[in-house]
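User: Some background: our group keeps a shared notebook of sequences we're curious about, and every so often someone picks one and asks for a predicted structure to add to the entry. Today it's my turn. The entry only has the sequence so far, pasted here. Could you supply the structure so I can complete it?
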Amino acid sequence: MSRRVGIDTGGTFTDFVRLSAEGLAVHKVRSTPQDQSRAILAGLADLDPRGGTTEIVHGSTVATNAVLERKGARVALVTTAGFEDVVVIGRQTRPELYNIFVPPRRPLLRDPTLVFGLAERLDASGALIEPVDEAGLAGLAPALTAGGTEVVAVCLLHSYVNPAHERQVAASLRAAGFVVSASHEILPEYREYERWSTTVVNAYVTPLIDRYLSRLETGLGPGVRFSIMQSNGGSISAGAARAQAVRTVLSGPAAGVVGAQAVARAAGFERIIAFDMGGTSTDVSLVDGRIATTTESRIGDFPVRLPMIDIHTVGAGGGSIARVDTGGALRVGPESAGADPGPACYGTGDELTVTDANLLLGRLDADLFLGGRMTLDVARARRAADRVSRALALPVEEVAEGVVRVANANMERAIRVVSVERGHDPRRFALVAFGGAGGMHACEIARRLKIATVVVPRQAGVLSALGMLVADVTRDYSASVLRPVTELTLRDLERIARPLVVTAARALAAEGFGPARRQVETSVDVRYSGQSFEITLPLTADYRRRFDREHGRLYGYSNPARPTEVVAVRVRAAGLTDKPKLPRRPVRRAFQPVPVARSRATFDGRPHTLASYRWDDLAPGARASGPAVITGGEATVVVPPGARFRVDGFGNVVCES
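Assistant: Of course. Here's the predicted structure to add to the notebook entry:
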């Protein structure tokens, strides 16, 4: 059996899960933000010193960080003359409605002199109005070179319906030696601002992803199949990721949702809310039997209109920094201590973080962190808390509990966004908590939301890395339609989708997947005429009726008599991978485990006796009541007073209250 490794690079730790004939093995190392490949290569050497790995699936934050920190490439934009300001104007929405001093949006195009309007024009049907200005096209290469361009984004007005002009421009620039991102290759859909933005983001991160992947491939050496996780929950080859780097911007969080669904389904839970609390942020996603995707995503200030798992992110994690604002209120996040310097208790930081607060409340064992591989510095955490304590004139314990409550409130709001605000009752779902810190906060948050069951997977601290081994290889394709439903038959839509299906089949064949290991799904974006947003539905004979039902569920009303139009056809193709089998042991008759220690901990301002358990010591069938803390090699679970927990056959901790 080959050795496959999933690798998730987070803000604080880099996680590894290896699948081989010996079963699953996990590993965790501190991230190296200056060069993430260093932590990956070092961790692989620890996990697999004999170098037997044959396949790696990796989720990276390189693209995300480049956009958020404005550290991407020097991009030039070539567009239809007269539309040079589309990426600056955007949608003219105001992020702060009552603030007249909102600073203007800063586009990723750092130099306005690198925006070039080219004389050419097609109409909305793709018919020729004005050919490409050959003289203007010939003059682009010298101007781009003089401006120090690293990569060119080509976005012409109606290339989504007829890419002929865009292909001509892209071919000319590539022949001149430039790296080009063309919008018809990245997002062949209407809405010029979103198409421009997605293409520019792709151009902005492409050189960084290329250099990063090259360093990794050099370090890995020959003979290793190397894939990258996408934001849509599937993986692609490193070569495909180089061409469309924008598809990797949320790869780590997406893998976490895939892993959460796989673990929850094995444990008997189909309806879940995935709750991933890491060192820097918390990602939440609702799975109602099927992972939800969306094309309405943003990275920082910039729309990225590609299929992504529907994930809501807040700046609350174990490394989130607590501070007192100018009004004297306690704030937690979104700033994070990250991996360097990290929380104060890690021994190098000086700021009070959520992890420090949990330690000071007695909810972390300083000697058993990461299964005993790392000792936490309680005195340093207390010194960091003292500064906030003096500013608020409150005891350290009250400050620490306040930090946890503020962080919990931020994460509770995030769960409400993906559930209550979208027509779902969170009480009908189980909360699947993972990430290094998820199990420490999940029970208290679930109690606030009246969620009865919390599942903390045995692989909670490395679940995103596990999700990468579960994920299929996927490709997404789309084509604009923009026609009334009354003018379209099912056969018409299938004919529009057919070239996309053929392209998808070729791509999967190139990845090594034969017909028996391919799965293709076709869907349509539908809306009432005059609306600005669509609902994506499977392409079936009754898609029109299904649209009315889904519109009613989402928005509270529907109108079957109202004219409707199909905006786009989508094809999602999956190459089905071999899924790892989660280890399962027989469940013994319920028994009370013996704690390895008892200590004092604070909950709701009152001291309690806390029972400590080692996760590795808890056999399936173990049951106990809180308050308790369960410490594992990659994650910790806190069971508050009044809650109970049991261990199932997969080693998951299932909490109920």
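Suggested note for the entry: The CA atoms of residues 1 and 21 lie 6 Å apart. The longest strand covers residues 473-484.
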